[in-house]
Amino acid sequence: MRRILVAGITGAGKSTMARALSTRLAVPYHEMDALHYTGPGWTVNGEFAARIAEIASSPAWIFDSYGYPEVRDLLWERADTVIWLDYGRRVIMPRVLRRSLRRTLTRERIFGGNRETLANWFRRDHPVWWAWSQHGTRRADIHQRAHDPRFAPLHVIRFAAPQEAENWLRTVDSKTITDV
To answer: What InterPro entries does the annotation carry (predicted)?
Structure first.
């Protein structure tokens, strides 16, 4: 496990898992949204695909995403492991609601210095609406990719509940990781 995608829908805990794995495995963690959005107004990085390709060609990395469309296949082809946080809406929605509410109320700066605002809550691409509307689609897409021969011999570790992921994570360290 040296090239890892932590996949799941918005609010699953991908970034939290990716950071924890990075610490335990001493593998560099890359926050996908921070690489994608580089400026105010949710400006997309013009060099995004090239930067991801550069990172993906390195011997070890962890991304907290299954990939934006322009880099998705590249990441899945180069990954050796996918950690799939496949949680139901009853887990996801309270998490994403709390996070977005906190970010809105505290005016927390995120990717490229942007902020979630009250006005953004009414947009279809707001994390809350996205998590709700894309849950089934994202789950089906990850399932299809996990079983796609193009991405073999990809090792997929699927967790259906946060406690499963937490229990597994406690067993992971740099000594045992080569056995996975």
So the answer is: Cytidylate_Kinase-2, P-loop_NTPase
Q: Which residues of the chain have pLDDT under 50?
A: 179-180
Q: How many Cβ atoms are within 10 Å of 99's Cβ, its own excluded? A: 17
Report the alpha-carbon angle 153-149-171, nearest 5. 35
End-to-end C-alpha distance for the chain, whole angstroms: 7
Tell me: cis bond preceding 162? Omega within 30 of 0 counts: no
Closest CA to 76 of 121, 11, 141: 141
pLDDT at 180: 44
Predicted confidence (pLDDT) per residue in 144-161, tens digit: 999 999 998 899 999 999
Complete DSSP assignment for 65-129: SS--TTTHHHHHHH-SEEEEE---HHHHHHHHHHHHHHHHHHT--BGGGB---TGGGGSTTSHHH
